[in-house]
Design goal:
Layout (H helix, E strand, L loop, with lengths): L20 H9 L7 H14 L9 E6 L5 H12 L3 E2 L5 E2 L2 E5 L6 H11 L10 H14 L4 E5 L9 H18 L3 E5 L11 H6 E6 L6 H11 L13 H11 L3 H18 L6 H6 L7 H7 L1
Parallel strand pairs: 1-6, 1-7, 4-5, 5-6
Antiparallel strand pairs: 2-3
């Protein structure tokens, strides 16, 4: 028998298992990063883009995937790792990463306002699109922004075809004027915005976050989740029966997996089980993405 207390938990989090129940539940609800192969590959791609020498026609990336499947978590992790503002040896302020959410519709002025606001700079919403665009270009140059990330890019599909083309042309203009790599992030529908003009599709590589298949990679993912859950007993989530059940309920969607396991862990704490059992997992089957909603309403 392993004599190390709570050896089933990552050593960084073992002390959490000693805390009172309410503190452990609070920890479970807090955001935590779980690295996996595809996520780490995308982080490396984005880091490579950020470090490219400035040149005409900087390469860009479109990151797509199902809703709640980890896209936003990845770009926030990237911003957390590489986005800190600093002052260089020439006393120049550097803001390497700007992360914004796309406007709720294809509105060029709202895009510029979001970009200016992300730098904490004042603006006049009554200014014309041209004036705001000039302010964005000037501000981003002054701040030495090295990569721009726009989340919820599929929102730019809300509008007429002309408005969509205007938005993409605005993004192309910024990329050209500031020699700036741009990462768009959204659902699979976001691919459609690249087809508003053949020039857009040639500028963007596309990376997809697929749903998880029920395979060894998925079992490794569950093993990683178990290491950050502060339960006093091991749950052996890689057991084939548990793995199959978790995959069936979550449909292989990362956000659904996280929610399911968090709820199961909280149940294990509240009941005193201190381990995620098959019965606890079955009891959370109502958390199925859409099937559960129909069951609750019906």
């Amino acid at each position: 028998m392993n004599s190390t207390p709570y050896s089933h938990i990552h050593e960084k989090f073992r002390h959490i298992a000693h805390l009172p129940d309410d503190e452990r539940i609070k920890f479970i609800h807090s955001p935590r990063w779980i690295g996996y192969k595809t996520a780490n590959t995308i982080l490396s791609l984005m880091h490579d883009l950020m470090n490219r020498p400035k040149q005409h026609r900087m390469p860009n990336l479109l990151l797509i995937g199902d809703s709640n499947n980890g896209k936003t978590t990845i770009i926030k992790k990237f911003n957390e790792k590489f986005g800190d503002t600093y002052v260089d040896d020439n006393d120049r302020i550097n803001v390497p990463v700007r992360l914004i959410q796309a406007p709720p519709s294809a509105n060029e002025k709202e895009l510029y306002i979001s970009l200016i606001d992300s730098l904490g700079l004042p603006f006049r919403s009554s200014d014309s699109g041209g004036i705001l665009r000039h302010q964005v270009v000037h501000s981003f140059r002054e701040a030495n922004v090295r990569i721009l990330i726009i989340d919820e890019a599929h929102s730019m599909l809300t509008g007429t075809a002309r408005q969509q083309r205007t938005m993409m042309n605005a993004i192309k203009y910024l990329c050209n004027q500031i020699d700036l790599p741009i990462v768009l992030c959204g659902t699979k529908d976001a691919v459609r915005i690249l087809h508003t003009d053949s020039q857009h599709s040639s500028r963007f590589d596309v990376a997809e976050l697929p749903v998880w298949r029920n395979n060894n990679e998925f079992r490794r993912l569950l093993g990683s989740f178990e290491k950050i859950l502060p339960l006093k007993e091991p749950s052996n989530l890689i057991d084939i029966e548990k793995t199959n059940l978790i995959h069936s309920i979550s449909d292989g969607n990362l956000g659904n997996v996280k929610r399911l396991l968090n709820e199961c862990a909280i149940e294990a704490i509240k009941t005193g089980e201190e381990t995620i059992t098959l019965d606890i997992i079955r009891g959370k089957s109502c958390l199925r993405p859409t099937k559960g909603l129909r069951k609750i309403i019906g």
